[in-house]
Design a protein that fits this description.
Blueprint: H1 7-12, E1 28-34, H2 43-52, E2 58-64, H3 67-76, E3 84-94, H4 97-109, E4 114-119, H5 127-132, E5 135-138, H6 146-165
Helix pairs in contact: 2-6, 4-6
């Protein structure tokens, strides 16, 4: 049920729903990347998009110095369900925003607790890491700078949760 139908949404008519209307319930989304730098020119915008997700789902961003460090971190995450690793890869599946939202909603319906969207090292993911992914996701045929890919993915996460909540942010074209 979208947040526009809850009492808080109707009474307040706010742009964001109340925290009680989290459409992804107890899911946690992590935007991870493997890179040598700790900050870049898009950090503030990425943080803003992830913060905009907060009325709907909990999010965070993680930086890893190596692919191995990312995999070790994923292995240490505990919950009632295993972490779902989604690797951004040029050879991965391309989706529209609506299809991506449907994919995320299906994971919610299956009871997924943690999903990690990871942007890999400059030379790409190793074959063993690619095999661990539940989904290889492509942002399109263009090659994007790491920082720009992070920003695009942060915006798509926000767009997906707004689509799932029936929020007017997504216009459908």
């Amino acid at each position: 049920m979208g947040c526009s139908s809850c009492f808080w949404g109707i009474l307040k008519a706010t742009f964001y729903p109340s925290p009680k209307c989290r459409i992804l319930l107890s899911m946690h989304l992590t935007l991870a990347h493997v890179a040598p730098r700790t900050r870049d020119e898009f950090d503030a915008a990425i943080r803003r998009y992830l913060a905009r997700c907060s009325p709907f789902v909990t999010t965070d961003a993680q930086l890893f110095k190596s692919e191995e460090a990312l995999l070790t971190w994923i292995d240490r995450q505990h919950g009632r369900t295993p972490v779902i690793p989604v690797l951004l890869d040029s050879r991965g599946r391309q989706m529209t925003s609506g299809v991506f939202a449907d994919w995320l909603g299906a994971r919610r319906n299956e009871g997924a607790q943690n999903i990690v969207f990871a942007i890999g090292p400059a030379d790409g993911w190793s074959a063993p890491t690619r095999e661990r992914a539940q989904l290889l996701l492509s942002l399109g045929p263009f090659t994007l700078a790491h920082t720009l890919a992070r920003l695009v993915m942060a915006e798509q996460l926000y767009r997906a949760v707004t689509i799932l909540s029936g929020h007017p942010y997504h216009s459908g074209h």
